[in-house]
Write a structure and sequence with these properties.
The model has no long low-confidence stretch (mean pLDDT 95). The protein is built from seven helices and 43 strands. Strands 7-4-3-8-9 form a five-stranded parallel sheet. The protein has four domains: 122 residues, 3-Layer(aba) Sandwich (Rossmann fold), CATH 3.40.50; 115 residues, Sandwich (Hypothetical Protein Tm1070, Chain: A), CATH 2.60.290; 100 residues; 255 residues, TM1070-like (Hypothetical Protein Tm1070, Chain: A). Helices cover 9% and strands 38% of the residues.
Length: 628
Amino acid sequence: MLDIETFDNSRGGNVAYKALAHPLAARGLAALAAQAGSVAVFDPDGIAGPLLALCPDFDVEGVYVQDIQAIGQIRGGHVARALVDLPEARVESVLIAAFDAGRIAERLRRFLPPGAVLLTLDGAKLPTLWRTNPARYLDAVNFATNFVFFRDDGHFATRLTTANYWAGYGAKTVRFFHILFDATGAKLAEWDDSAPAGPGGYVLDSRVVRERFGLGPFTGQLFIHATGIAGHDVVKYALDTYATDNSASLSCTHDANAWPSERFAGLPAPRADEQVTLWIQNSHAVPIPASALALDRMGANAPVPLDVEVPPFATLALDVADVFPGLHWPAQIEFLAGRHVVRPRYEVRRAGRTRIAHVNVERGDLRPDPGIKTLHPAMGRGFLLPFPVLPRTRFKTILLPTPMAASETNTPLRVDVFAPGGAKLAEHFMGVLPRDHDCAVDLDDILPPGALPDGGHAELVYDFRNGGDANGWLHALFRFEDRASGHAAESSFGAHIFNTLMVYKNEPQSYTGKPPGLSTRLFLKLGFGGRETFCVLIYPASGPWLETSSTMLELYDGEGALLDTAQLTIACAGSFIVRPSEHFTAARLSAAGECGYVLIRDTTCRLFGFHGVDDGAGGFSFDHMFGF
């Protein structure tokens, strides 16, 4: 396990981790280690562990602390000593493990060992151009970053789409900095681009990058860093993967989640006619040792270590059948990642078509919550996991619940299905599923023929009629298949409490405070290369809420100019398929361009959405949307 602290659901993201793990910081830390020689580390902020994990080049004599209660703790593999012992250290330097450490340095200077040079982490700061707040280094706005699975190999290209959503929070001059790594972890290119001055769209296509820098085929990862931001400190994006060799492959995925995790789950085993590849991408400047990563059949508790070292920032393709040759859908696999990687992608190949999807963070801090089983009636239906049922004349919709907490041993579940107008059509009790279940539900098996020809939605909910436990972190994988072409897409997400006046702990979640401050702000990218974009909006409600939404579609161009608006309403507990071409004229959409987008805005309720594109020839992509 890599000795780092990344994201905690009670405290949020760890800025010090981002400062130490940044690719440019890695270069600075390596230079600092070379300068330091034998070094004593003073650890005033408790970051010696991640510092030495992310830069093991330091020749550390010992770690020293000021807090009496910290003496004897293990920090970075060293037993912490009292700071009063520092003058006796036989070292060439003393490193203060802190940024902006000028005042500490002045106070410590008189207590240095004879001849020792005093250093701080300021020597590993990002260049000024890469910072939003130069006055305070460990400000979250200085580290708005993310990783992107990026590929252009003669068969597939990738296309990142986002927007300057920071402009809506007062940001004036946003800039994107990029570092592109190949499969070995070598840097292929480094550049920066201006974001639109207003809330415009931003597109980065691998074909354009490849031509711009004269690159050959590559499969690797793109590191992206935004400066000049306000309001949000994560780079959110949609990523399209599309065929460039006249094949029919097309898929899209959500952003990569910027925080490495101990475990990920929701990786499906292949069907007998499929190949599932897990893309393992090292998020750090230190190698992942052999056997530090492992795969496990969900619920088996028999992890299989991966006997391969992954170099810094490198990309490894792993065929899961090489680890579990006899395991097939609907079985599922855990990825024990040891905090080395951000949310990975997986690729499914079947019948000449390829699709990309992502696994999710499996939480280690959750335990069963008895309060969910006895929720007050005022909370209504409680936790809901809504997902689209695509028009059944064309598509199959398949559901696979995915345990997403390490402590989760069983999950009591029911599926409720709703028409677009909000009427409940069917329900199906799945039972109390064990952790190692292989229970997928094809909605064809629970809906009558002819139902939902134009689509609708379903909700996965807890159902305790036969007992069972719940933790609120209910997740599932949703697979959608074109009945004629065989093309498929899949997405996964988790449950929330939606649209109630009452609150249970931190639910329902809202961008603007507790209910009734619930609202919607979803990003819908436009189509590209002749493909048409679409999305499914769902209005889930745990309790009584407004009978209909008041939803606005706002069409923006690539510079952030508002070109047009359209109004629609969605019934409570209902859904709506949005195709921009049905709400905006062809001239308006042409003016918006491929860098334009639709902002889906609603101040009356929280909507949930899934988006994709349709190529008009049986190929499509589909994944959940992001908001800001």
